[in-house]
User: Fold this.
Amino acid sequence: MVVGIGEQTLAALEITPTEEMQEGEFTVTINNSNEGAVVRYYIMKDWKMFKEISEYTGPITISEIGNIDIYAIAENGDKCSPEAHQHYYVEKKTNSPCSFVTFCGMNVKDKAFAAKFGKSVTYRETKDAGVLTLSYADINAADNGYNTGVNAMDGTLIVELVGNSTIAAEAYGITMGTQGPGIGGKGGNLIVRGTTGSEVLTFNISDKGMGIYAYLANVTIENCTVVVNGARDGIAMKSGHDDGYLTVRGKNTVLNLNGSNAAMENVSDLMLEDGLDIVVPENGYFSYTGSGGTVFDPGTKTVATHVVIRYVDNGLQSPMFSHRATTFAEPFELYIYNPNVDGKKNERGTVIYKVVPAGISDPSLIKEQPYYGKGILIEETSTVYAYVVDGKEQSETAVVEYVYAPNVPQIEKEQTTDFGNDLTDSDGNALRVENVVVNNVYYNLPADSGNGYDTAGKCVVVNTPMSEDAFVGNDSPATPSEGDNFEWFNGMIVVVGGTGTVEITCETVGTMVLAVRKGNDEPAYYTQSSENTVVVNYNNSTPEYLYIYAVDTAAGKKKTREVSAAADCLKIYGMKVTPTTVVTGVESIFEDSETPGERVIYDLNGRRCTEPLEPGVYIVNRKKVIIR
Assistant:
């Protein structure tokens, strides 16, 4: 935030252009009507500081790709203006049509294509894009002996709608950026748009297929209704650094996605414009899993299989958050932006917010408070709620969850893990070990599922097994990087590089076995009928994750909810890592996660507190406590 000193009595600044979507390099101007005032600004790229606070002296050239936010304020003595903010999403400039376009397997430039589909499906090219026009088309790809409606890559394809059209296909309604998963391509941009705003494009897809699949490509839906029925995934993407963005724009636009696996899968970012919002599921929100961005149902806390996005006219728009990437390894400051302005471009209404740490199960325990523009420190997994109120009007509540994803450090010298010391408090009580790193070892052993340290047995008990499908679905990284999100994983992880051994003293009970997986290699399985040591050798040219977890060889076993050995479980009594040679990656500074399970205390504003406490009401280990 650009901090102004004094009263906000100066006129608001105007940042132009005001259109959020930009393509390629463009120029930004900050218009200041306050005579004698100095304008200061800063720029953020993808919600990270890109240009520090500087004095504005003339138009600013923006040549970066991605999310760009510009903040500015005018100052004159003890007076200042309200902070001005303008958000842009900048796409790569694409000046050519796609190099490859087929419809139901037919090259759209062939005469046979025109003869087959006539006026219902036509294709033309401009200097900037290929335009595929669907005019009251009712197409079944199987009638042409093909499993996909549209294939395109390497450029920009506009699917232009005249009237309502339907595409039925076994595999894909549209693939953009590739001829199909795994075939390659150079990405591109897909734009589906209507001519009047009343058009509907419906995809009827098999339960193994996808409505739209984008490979290293961006997708824009505008001024029309797009419906996907019956698919495994409504829209799915394979994303790189500057692509995988799904943009929905236009007050007449409706996006209705159905997918038995996910309505939306592996999207880098969801850009909603013109008052558009997620209306199904109720209070649904866009966030990230190990496999990318999707929409979650807050009621079930699962990936939504039905998503509807449309224009919501509730007078006030919901506030926006400075950070959309919802996993983090280091604490950061969160800013909340109020997009509502009056006719003079002055901020309209007040933002009300609260931060609810994951340790608090009942959000109503945390008081709401007005937001005054200062950064909110986020240092642990938390959910932030915010809305705008102006008199009797109130916006819908914006909700975002920020998940702490700790950086797992590499073990570079011999280390013997002492579970009894690491996983108990000073009184010898077992601590919760969920999504934390303690002494170079990552643990995610949810106590609610009966996992954790068993003080009686003096061992780590793993009652909840994992399937190998979990790794595939979460696209587990082979090479360590800062802040990987392993909340999908149940077990322990260490990072090793070079050569050496990992000794795991364990016992496998019933149908449970020990599984050890190096990076993305196939796992090795071990059975120990009594307490004994398994020796795992590693030889890695680069640092890799070593996953230690349980696999149940029989399905349907009931697990206990207490930290004690179930009829089928994995017990780990100790672990020793002995590097003989060490190969490291990029060095990083690491600090252990805070000790889990300690006396965790918050005040009613959601701020973390330390003892001794002043008299008042606090939340201690999830319970409201009065300190007198």
The CA atoms of residues 303 and 512 lie 29 Å apart.
